[in-house]
Design brief:
Oligomer: heterotrimer
Radius of gyration of chain C: 38 Å
Shape of chain C: elongated
CATH superfamily of the largest domain in chain A: Winged helix-like DNA-binding domain superfamily/Winged helix DNA-binding domain
Strand order of the largest sheet of chain A: 1-3-2
Strand order of the largest sheet of chain C: 2-4-3
Number of domains of chain A: 2
Structural class of chain C: mainly alpha
Strand content of chain C: 5-15%
CATH topology of the largest domain in chain A: Arc Repressor Mutant, subunit A
Number of helices of chain C: 8
Number of helices of chain A: 11
Distance between the termini of chain C: 100 Å
Helix content of chain A: 40-55%
Order of helices and strands of chain A: HHEHHEEHEHEHHEEHHH
CATH architecture of the largest domain in chain A: Orthogonal Bundle
Number of strands of chain C: 4
Largest sheet of chain A: 3 strands, antiparallel
Strand content of chain A: 15-25%
Largest interface: B-C, 50 and 44 residues
Distance between the termini of chain A: 66 Å
Number of strands of chain A: 7
Largest sheet of chain C: 3 strands, antiparallel
Structural class of chain A: alpha+beta
CATH class of the largest domain in chain A: Mainly Alpha
Chain lengths: 210, 210, 261
Amino acid sequence: MIEEEKLESLFEAPPMGEQERMVEALLFASAAPMSLMEIENRLPHGCDAKEALLHLGKRYEGRGVALRRIGDTWAFRTAADLGFLMQKEQVEVRRLSRAANETLAIVAYHQPVTRAEIEEIRGVSVSRGTLDMLIELGWVKLGRRKMTPGRPVTFIVTQVFLDHFGLETPADLPGIKELRAAGLLDNRPPPGALLDEAAEAVDDQDDMFE
Amino acid sequence: MIEEEKLESLFEAPPMGEQERMVEALLFASAAPMSLMEIENRLPHGCDAKEALLHLGKRYEGRGVALRRIGDTWAFRTAADLGFLMQKEQVEVRRLSRAANETLAIVAYHQPVTRAEIEEIRGVSVSRGTLDMLIELGWVKLGRRKMTPGRPVTFIVTQVFLDHFGLETPADLPGIKELRAAGLLDNRPPPGALLDEAAEAVDDQDDMFE
Amino acid sequence: MPDDFMQETNELNARLAAEALVVDVEGFEGPLDVLLLLSRTQKVDLRQVSILALAEQYLIFVEEAKRLRIELAADYLVMAAWLAFLKSRLLLPPDPKDEGPSGEELAAHLAFQLERLEAMRKAAARLMGRDQLGRDFFVRGQEEIYARKRVVRFEANLLDLMQAYARIKTKDDFEPLSLQRDAVFTMEQALERMKGLIGEAIEWGELMQFLPDAWRHDPKMRRSATASTFAAALELVKEGRMEIRQYQSFAPIEMRLKVDA
């Protein structure tokens, strides 16, 4: 017992200000509230976690974040009166479907392009929903009518599209060969891709979402 | 316009101390860095997030948790000198190959940089997987096309990269000023290369579009 | 003689370097990497490195690798050829009629490349030596965003777009294999025809006489018909129903009905 005490005094504990910083960092990074024991086990020898927590709690009084005691454990929580800020819209990120990606790519590369031209390039009929949705997203808009019989409407990409993809002009779109050379594209379609596509073409109508 | 101003004055912005608390709560709660715009969108009308961030940064100076600027975004991160306490939170950082390390450094210091420039600096062709992997890690992305003949695509580093290495901006890269002053970040073509390049540019032109 | 002595030590250094390198050529990231290591044996600032000495060391390295039958990538040999050229430029007095860059210019650029590569290596090391997220400093462990409203945001990046476009474009390159059949006279057709004709071929007749009229003019069709008729004739010879002969290489091939049997 006496031995132990002597040993402890050899390694002096860091000053209380430092201990407070340590507890602050530990609680911030921890995925779950921590008990006194857990905190003490992580601190250098001779630290007084209880005391450090006391100081820390005082420091955060009235701040946007508070040190909270939850049962036997401790954690930082945002101040209760600011809860309204946390009521965030939960953004659900969805990837565009293959059909939408392909249609968008064709509009970007071939604009101004008519619906019939898109269908010819894709080799599949384009469902109404696909173009509608790209328009709703603000990535595609109607362009000028084509000066061909029937004067069909054309589609072009928007400024929002260019901003989203970090392009200055549609001409900034990388060429296929370039990307292939950079190793960013597969050289060959995966085996069986041709068959898959034929099958997919049938149910392309409503696969806007993946 | 006048209507708008009237509307604003109806809702007076909270005092700066309160704004600071709000920003503190928002950033404390989020693991991902937030842009000024994201913060402002969440704050009540009329708040000055920039000013609040300034106050907040000062308040956390020397603490166990620090307010960090990462490109255009902000986040709280634990102080780097306390990393030794965090064995439990440590994730295994994948060691990059030497080729990947060098390629990453070249992209960071020379950005925006083309694949050909990377190869010229390293004196070897960039293997397929290297850039791919850096892109997958989220550290490198495609930049704008270079305004040189052929308009090749360029690569640049991302915010995730800055966050990972604790950099505010690419200008904070270690030693970048000295390297620039020494001319080591210049794109110096080999003597007599002008003819070759002109020939190459013509080739590239063809590659642009398929 | 200090000069001799210098030369000897240089040679010794070069030999040592070459041996050290040849052991482990796999570990190098190309010729520039080798040159960078060799330049360190000169123990001077990279700005003052002797490119001439370096070129020599490198050429020794390549020779040594060849002698030991170590497979060197083409890059290494290209560099060796270029350095040999550079060496001759550095040694010979400049030719005023020569329009290309001078040996000094080329050497200065190589020195610059080495210095730049070295600088990037050091930069990479310093970068990796920095405090890193998830190792030295950490993000908030418990996020506190309470979900209330669901908003769907669609995400697509440039790569998705490119891949989609590439998919459409490569589809065109991969049409199912189908042969152009209209210019092919099949072996079956030829055999059928020959069986009908051999009864009358009592005299020796040239192969070309057996071709159908319609197949004698267009060169592609004639080639096909000749091949299949010849193959059909061989088949009939094998069955013992025909005889075939040719007096010398490239002489006309003749055939007739086999009479005896």
